[in-house]
Amino acid sequence: MTECSRCGEAEDVEDGRIVGQLDHWDRAVCNRCRATELADHTALVREEAEVKAVRQLSEYSLDDIADFLDLDRSTVKMKLRVVEKRINKGQVTRETLLSQNLG
User: Fold this and answer.
1) Amino acid 91: pLDDT
2) CATH classification of 13-102 is 3.10.450, yes or no?
3) What is the pLDDT of residue 22?
4) Smallest Cα–Cα separation from 45: which of 96, 8, 88, 79?
5) Which helix (H) or strand (E) holds 90?
6) From the first residue on, what is the mean pLDDT of each consecutive set of 10 residues in the chain (103 residues)?
7) In this structure, are residues 9 and 17 in contact, taking their beta carbons and an 8 Å threshold?
8) Using CA atoms, how far apart are residues 25 and 57, in angstroms rounded to an integer?
9) Helices (H) and strands (E) in the chain, counts
10) Are 83 and 51 in contact (CB under 8 A)?
11) What is the pTM of this model?
12) How many angstroms separate the Cα of 41 from the Cα of each of 30, 66, 83, 103?
């Protein structure tokens, strides 16, 4: 059974915990730890971070994510659109700040 490298908890879908790997990271992480990281270090609010974490760590469809997080499919779809907008806005902001620091 796969365990989260951060909290040490094992995957337990019934308890709302999935464990997976991010493309750029070689250790397993659970959706709860990933959501906390996203909420703490980005402009995402907690529910957006939870949706994004499940999307990153699983191959779940929108319907599966909705069932897993007990949300409507339309809510999941909307949250993912908002997440992408916030991430894109954050990337532009980081690039702008970086260029100002170098300039």
Assistant:
1) 58
2) no
3) 86
4) 79
5) helix 73-102
6) 93 96 87 91 87 95 97 97 81 49 34
7) yes
8) 11
9) 4, 2
10) yes
11) 0.83
12) 17, 24, 13, 25
Parallel, antiparallel, or unpaired: how do β-strands 19-21 and 28-30 relate? Answer: antiparallel
| 56 token code pair | 């990153």
- Other C-beta atoms lying within 10 Å of the C-beta of residue 100: 8
Contact 34, 57 (CB under 8 A): yes
Residue 29: per-residue pLDDT: 95
What is the phi/psi pair of residue 26, to 5°?
-95, 5
Q: How far apart are CA 72 and CA 60, in angstroms?
A: 14
- With b for 16 or more beta-carbon neighbours within 10 A and e for fewer, the 70-92 pattern comes to ebeeeebeebbebbeebbeeeee
Mapping DSSP to helix (H, G, I), strand (E, B) and coil, where does residue 10 land? strand
Largest Cα separation within the chain, whole Å, is 52
